[in-house]
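quick one, 451 residues, struct below
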Amino acid sequence: MKIYPDTTIYIVCPANYRSGGPESLHQLCSQLIQFGVNAKMIYSFGSSKMNTADPVDEAYKKYHVPWCLPDNLSKIDLPKNILVNNESSATSPYVMKKIRIIFWWLSVNNFFEDIMTRLRNHLLNPLAAPVPKFFYFDKADKNIEHWSKSEYSRQFLKMNGINADKIHHVETYMNQIFFKQASKINLAEKENIVVYNPKKGFEITQKLMAAAPDIAWRPIKNMTSAQVQELLGKAKIYMDFGEHPGRDRLPREATISGCVVITGRRGAAGNDVDINIPAEFKFDEQVTETEAVIKKIREVFDNFEEALNKQKDFCQRVYDDKKNFAGEVAAAFGIKNFPPPSVAFVQGFGEKSFLLATELFRGKDFVPSFIIDDVMASTKISDKIILREQNRNYLRVGENVIEIITRDDAKFLYWEGRIKKFALLEPDDSEFDEFKNFYEPADEDVLIFER
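---
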């Protein structure tokens, strides 16, 4: 879909809500900004938890993307703008008339759940409001472009009559923090543990647990992300007999954590593209006997390194997702020209950062993007020097502004690729060593300036 100089891309996302889908939507917005595209989140109403003053879930504030609310849609309903919708908001394509629509299928199953929820609400009181129009593969919607996150969703779109020229394959990637932590896992210390998600295929898991009570079964339940990663880091096996409505996050987190993955064959697990593990690790839930799965579990326990090596292609694909995502987004929008590298100023809110920003704004080699200062990033202030907007602070530099962020967020954005270079003005040895130890930047990503 073509991007014009005055195009803004709006990405529909539930407000104050945390799951794999919303994270993918924030990753898309961050990637588009990295490409120099004007992109914003548009947080949808309908959540009882929605905070209109701060609709960004705490987990996604580190992406530092702009946002708006759907309270004046006529202003953004323009022919050159683009609305990236997702399958959980089946009615969104019909809220506006002129804006161009992309339907990103992060999950297939959520599409039906959204429609059924809406229809059930109308069943309770059919006269409360008109039944909304929702996307249902009508020929009148032929101008809508579709993105498939998985081979499973691509097959679903094709089966329902969407032409191949209207489908772009855009997969997502795992949070880069997970890779950093996973690199510290010692495979030699792995234990004979099977991790499972009690929300997915638990009726099958119950049978397995009853048949083999001697096996250490560990559920992922009421855990933080860090606790999930710690558990996966200890276990040899992650087992998932769920629906697999797309390329689910947990199987990918498991393989990065050095787990052998065992699945059923429902949804995306039914093909050899989305979860590309050998057939011996996939079991058809309808015909497989419990003993066959337990036999495989014991084989993995006894020959862990061999089993893990058999799934190396699946693991490598997850490592490649970030690079592939950038290329797929660029291809979907026809982006070929990229902006100069973005720069973050390490030495905090003060004279050195202001001087560097002023100098770099004069040239065209770099884009001054962030000032790193823990205190000023969280201080609630707005004056002639500081602009406070959407709960974030910006330094005014002439007609330009630069966002002020924390060190932790700067490290995350460097891993993400939003920050390409770090700039320092005449740092002393201790200051430079502290910077290098914390961010661990590549040598080519460090810019040292003199007065």
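The chain has a mean pLDDT of 91.
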